[in-house]
Write a structure and sequence with these properties.
heterodimer, A: 552 residues, alpha+beta, 2 domains, 14 helices, globular, B: 223 residues, mainly alpha, Fumarate Reductase Cytochrome B subunit, two-stranded antiparallel ribbon, 5% strand, Hydrogenase_cytochrome (chain B), iron ion binding (chain B)
Chain lengths: 552, 223
């Protein structure tokens, strides 16, 4: 990748030196007009249908579809729209519409707050499939390049609108910013291929704030320095999300439900467009080049994922991630009966982050966090809401599958989210909760009553409820794959090859340096010790017996 | 019979010995680092140095083996039961009494029976064990075939480790024994200059005088 870029740059330089100079000398007076349409053959501001005062998002979509006739159908088949994913490995049906996570819990019962990030308009009831009319697709959220398109945080996917574009309006956007009236015409005329600003406004803010969920996806990636992300930094490869997350018919490669955890195909045939977001799809499965060390490092790729060494820590670049969320303490009010907010974590940029909120409970945050490591074959098995759990144990909200030394598995880094969340204490299963609902008398964030919130949540989900609830400790695993450091900042060998190395306790791999005192090691050391004692003893005896005859 | 200074270690053998000594020292140091016994140098460079030294030593060994067999020197390393007890008795008892060692270096027999047996064991068991295990260890990715391979690798690794410690123990005793008899300097000197004081039969002496005069030092006042 780098090599080809450099080659191209070099070729350009050589070309301009060879011909450009000659040309500029020969035609010094001539001004060559720039080639129009950077990266596209269409200037959308010239389309008449886009030169109108749009009244809503769906109106814009209708205009888009007048040319892009199949786009709505394509998008509606994608996970971005469906929020549903059939995992062929586990047979589970996953997706935001199905699972309970360790953060805000569940979508059902909390629309349109949660569906504000849906890549469509107007999905305000999880009981039915997302709206099926073609104009329900939100083209702009991914394609707007004007930078002023946004989604309202409580609008089921609709943008904030008002009489005067750009003026403040009521509410907040999905990134938590105070909302403004979006200029839909400007936005429609600006469209282009998605940039990190498009993907980021949903994916950087999952879980209710900047970097709360993933740990390796934060607003730091809008403009990261090279140490934070070698791929996305302007000083690095300056790539956008879709450079790796390749696309086929509005469907994207890369999924944390089913990852390409051990890509043995690599770059594929020359010119092949591979539908994979793996490192290997660009870097091949023998990415280190040059010396003996490179050979040795390439020897690691069968057992160790690229990410394990090349992302030494996550939540880099100055944005912390939530590492612990205890819902059980939520609901505490002060003496005046008012909700409380405590801010006891200072982010490296000086920002104070909340560590207690009456609506959400207690939090811990982390920056530059060392990952948790596990064997992973790419498939994730969820503890689904109908499954029975053991409340005396830490419940794994999702299990990462894979076996020590398994053919299909490698050692991967994860963010392990530690949680304490509600469950149905009678039926021993995860509980749905109704947290958002400003007008209901059951929503937790309005009434601070767990009993009501859980009862309402279970009812909304149509799930039998015993009437008793409690709280369980949970883990949730998030594969770490973004925020790749420059090569010279990759993890040092001794981070793992040491007695207290990072992979201690991980079975199925031979790791020199981790156990100098193994049985055989001890045996050998004993042998050496006995030899040393033997010669010392022998030498002493010789010294003592000296004089009784020469040493010749 | 007379004692003469004879070149017993040709240039190649001395070069081989000292290259091997240096490389084994490096291998021991880096090997102990890689297995985690010390942390005097970083892990990565230790692995590289260990691998490079091993490959170099392997080349030296290929030459040495060729040399041993073409020159017939390999016979020097054949063990002999005869005299072994006497030698063992000397190191365990006689040496403290100031007795003369029961064995004198001969022209075609540089090692005493104990030495010969030790070298025989080293060359036929320990060195092959460390070489074979080392090469299998190094080329893991060429033969790896899944979960069973990890177990095989663990076995190979332990064989390598044990053989390495045996060599470590040998080095300790080997260096110590240089201090016995005529003393450390006198023992090391032949491996540097090539010449050692050897008991020659008149026939051997006459042969060398007339056929290989370069291997004999002129009869100078011995010591």
């Amino acid at each position: 990748m780098h090599a080809s870029r450099n080659t191209t740059a070099f070729a350009r330089l050589a070309y301009s030196l060879a011909f450009g100079l000659t040309a500029s000398v020969a035609f010094a007076q001539e001004v060559i007009p720039p080639v129009p349409g950077e990266g596209s053959t269409a200037d959308h501001s010239k389309f008449e249908i886009l030169q109108q005062e749009f009244k809503s998002g769906p109106e814009v979509t209708a205009a888009c579809l007048s040319c892009h006739t199949e786009a709505d159908d394509q998008v509606m088949h994608s996970i971005h729209f469906q929020w549903e994913f059939d995992n062929p490995v586990t047979g589970q049906t996953l997706g935001k519409s199905k699972v309970i996570n360790a953060f805000c819990g569940n979508v059902v019962g909390n629309e349109p707050r949660c569906t504000s990030c849906h890549a469509g308009y107007g999905w305000d009831d999880m009981h039915s499939a997302p709206p099926q009319q073609s104009t329900a697709v939100d083209c702009l959220v991914c394609h707007d390049q004007s930078g002023q398109y946004a989604k309202l945080s409580t609008g089921a996917g609709h943008p904030p609108l008002g009489d005067v574009p750009g003026e403040p309006v009521k509410g907040q956007t999905i990134t938590g910013a105070d909302a403004w009236a979006v200029d839909l015409m400007k936005s429609a005329q600006s469209v282009g291929m998605p940039t990190r600003e498009n993907c980021g406004q949903c994916h950087f803010y999952g879980g209710g704030g900047d970097n709360v969920k993933h740990g390796d996806l934060s607003s730091a990636l809008y403009d990261p320095d090279i140490h934070t992300d070698v791929h996305m930094s302007k000083d690095g490869a300056n790539m956008v999300c879709s450079d790796c997350h390749t696309e086929e018919s509005h469907n994207w490669a890369g999924s944390r439900y089913l990852m390409d955890a051990k890509d043995t195909i690599g770059t594929g045939e020359p010119g092949e467009h591979r539908f994979s977001a793996s490192c290997e799809s660009c870097h091949s499965d023998s990415p280190h080049e040059g010396d003996l060390m490179a050979i040795k490092l390439n020897d690691h790729v069968d057992k160790v994922a690229c990410q394990t060494c090349h992302i030494p820590e996550f939540a880099r670049g100055g944005v912390a991630t939530k590492t612990y969320w205890d819902w059980s303490t939520a609901g505490r009010l002060n003496a005046e009966g008012q909700p409380i907010a405590e801010h006891n974590f200072t982010q490296s940029d000086g920002q104070e982050l909340h560590t207690y909120l009456t609506i959400k409970g207690d939090f811990e945050w982390g920056e530059n966090v060392e990952p948790y490591y596990a064997w992973f074959n790419g498939a994730v098995d969820y503890t689904l809401p109908e499954e029975e759990i053991d409340p005396t144990q830490v419940v794994e909200i999702n299990k990462v599958l894979g076996t020590p030394d398994g053919e299909d598995s490698r050692i991967w880094p994860f963010k392990r989210m530690v949680g304490r969340q509600s469950y149905d204490a009678g039926y021993n299963k995860l509980a749905y909760s109704h947290v958002w609902g400003p007008t209901t008398d059951t929503a937790f964030w309005t009434n601070y009553d767990w009993g009501k919130a859980i009862e309402a949540g279970m009812k909304a989900a149509g799930s039998p409820y015993s009437g008793e609830y409690g709280f369980i400790d949970t883990y949730m695993y998030w594969p770490i794959t973004h925020m790749v450091a420059p090569a010279d900042e990759a993890m040092d060998c001794a981070e793992c090859h040491a007695e207290d190395g990072r992979l201690v306790g991980l079975a199925g791999v031979v790791m020199p340096g981790t156990n100098p005192n193994s049985i055989v090691g001890r045996l050998g050391q004993l042998l050496v010790l006995l030899s040393a004692l033997g010669v010392v003893g022998h030498g002493l005896l010789r010294l003592l017996s000296r004089g009784k005859g020469g040493t010749h | 019979m007379s004692k003469r200074f004879v070149k017993v270690y040709p240039r190649f053998e001395r070069l081989w010995h000292w290259t091997q000594a240096l490389l084994i020292a490096v291998l021991m140091f880096t090997g102990l680092r890689v297995s985690g016994v010390h942390e005097l140098i970083p892990f990565g460079p230790a692995v590289m140095l260990h691998t490079l030294s091993a490959l170099t030593l392997l080349v030296v060994w290929i030459f040495a083996t060729f040399w041993l067999f073409t020159t017939g020197t390999w016979r020097q390393f054949l063990p002999k039961v005869e005299g072994m007890l006497a030698t063992a008795r000397y190191y365990a008892y006689g040496i403290f009494k100031g007795e003369e060692p029961p064995y004198q270096k001969q022209m075609l027999r540089k090692h005493n029976p104990l030495q010969a047996a030790t070298y025989f064991g080293l060359k036929w068991v320990v060195f092959p064990a460390i070489w074979v295990s080392g090469i299998i260890y190094l080329t893991y990715n060429f033969w790896d075939s899944g979960a069973d391979s990890t177990f095989v690798l663990e076995v190979v690794r332990n064989i390598h480790l044990l053989a390495a410690y045996v060599i470590f123990a040998f080095v300790i005793v080997h260096v110590y024994l240089l201090t016995t008899g005529h003393g450390f300097r006198e023992h090391v000197k032949p491996m540097v200059t090539g010449y050692d004081c050897i008991e020659l039969t008149p026939e051997q002496e006459a042969y060398l005088e007339s056929n290989e005069p370069g291997r004999l030092k002129p009869v100078a006042p011995a010591e």
